[in-house]
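A quick aside before the break. I want you to see a complete sequence-to-structure record at least once, exactly as it would be stored in a machine-readable document. Don't worry about memorizing anything.
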Amino acid sequence: MLSAFARAFRTPDLRRKLLFTITIMAVFRLGSFIPTPGVDYTNVQVCVSDAASNDLLGMVNLFSGGALLQLAIFALGIMPYITASIIIQLLRVVIPRFEALHKEGQQGNAKLTQYTRYLTIGLAILQSTTIITTARNGTLFPNCSVPVIPDQGIFTILIMITTMTAGTALIMWLGELITERGIGNGMSLLIFTQIIATFPTTMWSIAGGASGVSKFLVVLAVILLVIVLVVFVEQSQRRIPVQYAKRMVGRKMYGGTSTYIPIKINMAGVIPVIFASSLLSIPALAAQFGDQTSGWVIWVSQNLANSSAPLYVLTYLVLIIFFAYFYTAITFNPEEVAEDMKKYGGFIPGIRAGRPTAEYLEYVISRITAPGSMYLALVALIPLTVFILLGLANSIAFGGTSILIIVGVGMETVKQIEAQLEQRHYEGFLR
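That is the input. The structure line, written in tokens, reads:
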């Protein structure tokens, strides 16, 4: 593997892409430490240790690389763009115009990307306003006695909202730059950067205190086990054979080839886990603004805002399985695939073209999504269960979702580097 890295850096254009990607990632990470104008950075450092254990903020703070609780210019991270992308994909199901744009190819997808950018800015304004409001009224740092925003005038608040929104726009631009001029998917690599940046601090916090070393070894063993599981399943796929009939076009013969449709066990990726976490955060968010002495707020805090509660774990499991089926259904259209195969003379051996092919593909997808959804639930629940048993559930946001993202993005990036090396007759990383 080291020799493969050396060959990659010896290739001029590949070295240029790698260095460009690393530079953008460094700039992105730097923005996580620059405080937003109007924030008292010293007071934030005093308050941040108490707020780090908040389950509601744990996932968002993790995806921002700790910038959220620092109230930095990149406090929102890449989450507004992810949310906007998911919303646009869901709207394809209910808005025919969006589905028509998706079918137009590159030009239509460019239009959808533009809509995603506009929605990202709108969500960034909404989220930055919410974060600043919670910081002003003490909800963001409930146990802190010093003000994190000393000047709460309207002009200062507007400057803070504008700065955080501009930070989100800059992150979106940096991600697109990596995709165009660097290696890998830019948005995925930025998420990877923020999550991996918090990993050493999280592991170090586990090692400290009583029985810290033993807990650290157990957590490390669980992480390695989950990584092996993720690598094995993410590489697995069901290959449906497809044959194309021979046809004459002018004086040339086309077709007569055999190929296959690769269907991954986990077609939905990490989206169901993010959906489930986001949906579970809504009751906790509502409880934050309610009367802390009322019965429903106490019940929500004990059952739906506490990651170690049995009801929370059960609801989390059910939501992951539901969203795995739901997202797979809206991203893979068996009728569209069957129609494209029929148009180009393709057929599955033993299955008639057209409607029977669509029904067969739908049957396969429904069966293969079952183990895929259970795999996602298992990846999400194994670390959570271990953290609960070790008494670390409320102090560590790093979990199965983080491992899934890190391993998935790492594997995809390595594959792209390997493809670049193979174009120059070099061996890849995996032999």
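Two observations worth writing down. DSSP finds 17 helices and five strands in the chain. The chain has a mean pLDDT of 79. We'll return to this after the break.
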